[in-house]
Design goal:
homodimer; globular; Butyryl-CoA Dehydrogenase, subunit A, domain 2; 584 residues
Chain lengths: 584, 584
């Protein structure tokens, strides 16, 4: 049956051997004393929590869902207790500033933690999912009394936070927001408006909820330049109930354990966070971390779908395979893992999962370098890299996560369609990750239109140069470098030709992002191949692990190596006219 | 909000102008008196039933689901009444033999009927979904008293049927079935065993249920050659309850209005249908019609997802588009249908939907020609064509239907994840169509290993020759013919090289099927282009319809034209070694 086994071995391989993070920590004073062994212990404990506490609540939580009555929300059985265990374990503060009560560990380890949480129970993970972003937002913008009152409890996870952006008429386009904030004499604001799709807007996990709300001050300009960020707690400092109410929870395709709330702010008391009219910038501080975390959800879905599909394929026998491993005795029916179509599916899922893990951890390490590396130049290069990698990872990993789970479902045949097998829930839960925190189409526009074209692809060039250094010594280096070169070439054509057909970049954006993502995946595999070869040559134990890694690197090259060219060709084809649709 | 508008205009275009079916009927005595206008009236009435009776039950039926208590099943509110209206309207007997109480209309019209039923309410349509297959099975194999007792009521739909194949350990591999049938002195059999995933195994729509059961007679050979088909009614001719019981209904990802039953046959009384040990052949008579109908479900999902996505995109405004139609006034936010990523999604969905309709109707017409054409040679060629088209349509249309609905969901953004919008249900309902009636992987093996390779691709060659005749006069003819040539070439290489690497065809099967499907879609669009040009040149009215058709033909060529080459390249890449997965 369904289970989740934390992929600790592969995580260690990626962290230590592929991206060399533990060696890097030694050169970073912020991570003084942190070594590979300590990191491995942290992840082992995190894995235990995910597998033993969260995973058993995943299927039942989907069936129970959240219930709403008179403005209060009851989460599925076991959710509040699991959250208390999470807080007691100190997990919320893992990557927070020790000066604020945090443990000061790298984002990379926090990323691995959240990969495991999402894989084990995405619905539950929605509650603490915004916790770190809220911490960063308060850490950067809250001052004085506000900081003292809220930052420690947000850091520790004692109080959970929400991100109140969306309104019914304003999702991707935040410039249309109507929620208002009016100043009061005491320095607070009266916040009024309706928000939808607020994850954890109401819940029974924490005593208080800290809403971070985008609203418009009186007289503020229209559009996104007139938005301010306000902190609106469920309970006011004097203990009285603030006038913020949950009017309903949504009936969703998945993530049924997560309360998605319609919230009403009725002259609710709030305080400004950061500068007036600079709310979007403050919120984006949350958003960039949030987008990497959404990508990690996709990775978690891929991992848990893959490992369960593999076990199912080994256990279920149907029909004879056209070929059997040597020495395997003939039987009336072979395990379906021997059938070519299933082998191809499973190798694909594994190659995708492990390649995506390298990509996501590269980005997390870039965030750590950007925040904590002693060398200015390294910090600024890492920041630029993280900035470009974020939309790629958010979009690519959520798509591969959802479509990967959808493909994996087929391994169960008709049984995959049944709830108790577990996989259909992953398909449903994973779909929304392609939408929230900026749809994948918006990620593509963010990448190409806002981050690649404006500087003539200069920063993209730096990223591709960096990627090229990763493939040195690999048997796949030549192909990987050709990919990078082809990306450079199309980026240059896009920069030039946008002058005559300004819409081409928009039409090409999705395929451009995907081509870049696939090219980076190829680099990730080339790098993994080098690391595995090095380990084998070094005579390290665990040969089976490294041999399998090399087989997957080979599969990636043979079977998935055409994806970059395919998406580049699609981006080129998108030069063709794309008329407006006829009005019916 | 969600709705279903029967695509009657496009159906007429395909039936009359693209495949010229109404002209063909004139040459077929079986369809004496049937003309384009009569057919259009039949479809208009069918469309009314689908849109007005079934569509409103779709969302509520998903929420209500089926309930099981003490062996009885209650279907969602409104389902039984809708079924009575379906029977009263004479819809079950549409394409049945007039000698048996049928209306004798073409399979093509029955196909259009079922496309609409599935689009409006796939869950409900599961109940009558096997009706026509059961009719064919009884029509071919039931004799004497059995025929008299059951055929008329199955034809009229007064009693519904089930297809009892799957057992818990035997899904794709029916050779593993264990259900037994023991002869009794009176010529009946005692049937014992457990079946799962039986759609409509128990329901409250009809007074009796006619189970068609695959079982093994005592002493029968192992494997599929020892299977017999038995008719086991819920109520025996004397009115007593037969010992066949529904022990539970499954909790599924979708199709929640359809009761998927675990059935227990406890020395239940049944009668042999056809010859002993020839049960699979008798069942396959049901299966081929059933597979085309599953393809039609995919088409229905595509259609309903596409038309609702288009309306949503026209109604919702978010952000400014980089380009606007001339004369459209500037606004704070444009309808998202103007945004390039959405335009591309919608053109793709429309091109897929309408191309798939041509493909499915081509196959239905081939079934009609095979059954009713006066010319022997035409009948036999049509039969061979239907035989090859069936797995392609089952597999391609269900995949495009599910992935198309999944893509369409994105048009709603976060709202698409909410049940009341309707689209997330289509994503869930459509997934199983890729699995049941033979998984899509099995369709691919059926096509390449059982239908293409054994005769050295001779019949495939005939299909490709036929396809070539369809594209004459199109601006896309050159590319379409190149596709067909490339398919011939790879089929020839597969025939030859299978001798040295017998597993390559298995590794290549999915991409081979998909390449053939995409090549046929390109032909369908080339043919549609010719038909639209002819109508415009002929000065027919409705220019807007034909102009839009030409735009979609252009989009297909520009944006989707690379799909054949892509899948052929993947089939070639599948020459690479595909190792067994390491045992962990």
């Amino acid at each position: 049956m369904w289970s989740y086994v934390p992929p600790l071995r592969d995580m260690r391989f990626v962290i230590d051997e592929v991206i060399g993070a533990s060696a890097a920590w030694e050169r970073m004073p912020a991570f003084d004393g942190l070594d590979s062994e300590t990191a491995a212990q942290v992840l082992e404990e995190a894995g235990k929590f995910a597998a033993e506490v969260l995973a058993p609540l995943n299927g039942p939580g989907d069936l129970a869902g959240c219930t709403w009555a008179d403005g209060t929300v009851t989460t599925p059985p076991g959710y509040p207790a699991a959250y208390r265990a999470f807080v007691d374990g100190g997990w919320p503060a893992l990557a927070c500033d020790p000066a604020c009560g945090g443990q000061g560990l790298p984002q990379l380890l926090n990323a691995a933690l959240y990969e495991m949480l999402a894989a084990a129970n995405h619905g539950w993970t929605m509650y603490p999912g915004l916790l770190h972003g809220a911490y960063e937002c308060l850490h950067a913008h809250a001052s004085g009394e506000l900081r003292e009152r809220y930052l420690p409890k947000v850091t520790s996870g004692e109080w959970l936070s929400t991100m109140c952006l969306t309104e019914a008429h304003a999702g991707s386009d935040l410039g249309l927001l109507r929620t208002k904030a009016e100043p009061r004499a005491d320095g607070s604001y009266a916040v009024s408006g309706n928000k939808i799709f607020i994850s954890g807007g109401e819940q029974d996990l924490t005593d208080n909820i800290v809403h971070l709300v985008l609203a418009r001050l009186a007289g503020a300009p229209a559009g996104t330049k007139g938005l301010s960020l306000l902190l609106v707690p469920k309970f006011l400092p004097d203990g009285s109930r603030n006038t913020v109410f949950c009017d309903s929870v949504e009936k969703k395709m998945g993530l049924k354990g997560s309360a998605t709330c319609a919230m009403r702010f009725d002259s609710a008391t709030g305080w400004l966070l950061g500068e007036p009219n600079r709310g979007l910038a403050a919120m984006f501080l949350m958003m960039n971390a949030a987008r990497l975390h959404v990508g990690l959800q996709g990775l978690g879905h891929l991992e848990v779908a893959t490992q369960n599909a593999l076990r199912q394929a080994q256990e279920r026998a149907q029909s004879r395979a056209p070929r059997r491993p040597e020495g395997q005795p003939a039987a009336a029916a072979d395990p379906i893992v021997l059938h070519p179509a299933m082998r191809r599916t499973l190798w694909t899922l594994q190659a995708r999962t492990e390649g995506c893990r390298v990509l996501a951890y590269w980005a997390a390490q870039a965030l750590d370098d950007a925040a904590s590396h002693p060398d200015d130049a390294v910090r600024s290069a890492a920041d630029a890299r993280a900035c470009l990698l974020t939309p790629v990872i958010k979009s690519l990993l959520t798509e591969l996560g959802h479509l990967g789970a959808d493909t994996a479902l087929g391994v169960w045949g008709g049984h995959g369609y049944i709830h108790e097998m577990g996989i259909e829930q992953i398909v449903r839960d994973s779909r929304v990750a392609m939408i929230y925190e900026g749809t994948n189409e918006i990620q593509a526009i963010d990448l190409l239109l806002r981050k690649v074209l404006p500087d003539g692809a200069a920063k993209l060039g730096d990223l591709l140069d960096w990627a090229a250094t990763q493939v040195e010594g690999s048997t796949q280096a030549r192909v990987a470098l050709e990919n990078l070169q082809a990306l450079r070439a199309i980026a240059s054509r896009l920069c030039t030709d946008a002058a005559t057909d300004g819409e081409w970049p928009y039409r090409a954006a999705d395929d451009f992002l995907r081509a870049l993502g696939e090219a980076l995946l190829a680099c990730a595999w080339a790098r993994s191949e080098v690391a595995a070869c090095r380990a084998l040559e070094g005579g390290q134990g665990d040969r089976a692990f490294y041999d399998a890694k090399l087989q997957r690197a080979r599969f990636q090259a043979d079977y998935l190596g055409g994806e970059v060219a395919r998406h580049l060709a699609c981006a080129e084809r998108a030069r063709a006219e794309l008329p407006f649709l006829p009005v019916p």
